Amino acid sequence: MNDNSPVLPRRTAVAGTVAVCGLASACARYGGPNTPQPDTIAGEDTGGGATGDVLGLASDVPVGGGTVFRDREIVVTQPSEGVFRGFSALCTHQGCVVTGVADGTINCDCHNSKFGVGDGAVLAGPAPEPLAAQQVSVTADGKLVTGGAPPDTTAQTTEPPAETTEQTTTEPAPPPLASTSDIPVGGGTVFADQEIVITQPTRGDIRCFSAVCTHQGCLVSTVAGGTINCDCHGSKFAIADGSVTAGPAPEPLGEREILVEDGRISLP
Length: 268
Ligand code: FES
Ligand code: FES
Fold this sequence. Notes:
Layout: E1 54-57, E2 66-69, E3 74-80, E4 83-88, E5 100-102, E6 105-108, E7 113-116, E8 122-124, E9 136-138, E10 143-146, E11 178-179, E12 187-191, E13 196-200, E14 207-210, E15 222-224, E16 227-230, E17 235-238, E18 244-246, E19 259-261, E20 264-266
One FE2/S2 (inorganic) cluster is lined by residues 213, 215-216, 218, 230, 232-235, 247-249.
């Protein structure tokens, strides 16, 4: 493998098991777009019956249009009154987060792809595939939540929760992602499936960053010439710390947690 290592194919994020940081102090916990996050909407709760994360109020999603929840990388549409649809907000062209919903389509301004609000189908532009469907639902008090319909809490009993003492404790070790020898010294490798880029600025110094460009959310393309490069609009990031060295990106790439053990690199 060399500095121009190809971007590996993208797929659903890998579920983590044991969280142990094998890096220098700069590590941060990895959380991809499919990683459930705690409810982070200030002042909101899950209404006592929601099964997922609260996105906002269903009433804020316009009929015939939709709303992009950039933080969650979800777009929710309301093609007709009371019918809500959820889609991944990651454009299937080069991974930008879609820009907005207007004139009846979900629009990605990176290269002008457009998707239907009803089914996420490609209506225009270079995107090769529809937006992936994501389940969303509306709680009894009108909140949009990720996942399926919240449980009916009107018939709650006073029974204690089921015993959970038989939990499995023999999680298999995560499969290695690569060997440290696979990562070019002075360069790095983009792992598109996991949306991370692993670098090795100097021999034995393995670092990991988000591969999602902080400009408009494209996946970075390559590690070459001593920088991590996003070909969407030419941003470049330093392999040592992810800082911006060129281009329109406003912020460094976020650091991500990985495990490095016996020369093998894996996700926690
Ligand atoms: S049109 Fe969306 S990333 Fe190119
Ligand atoms: S998305 Fe614009 S430079 Fe990366």
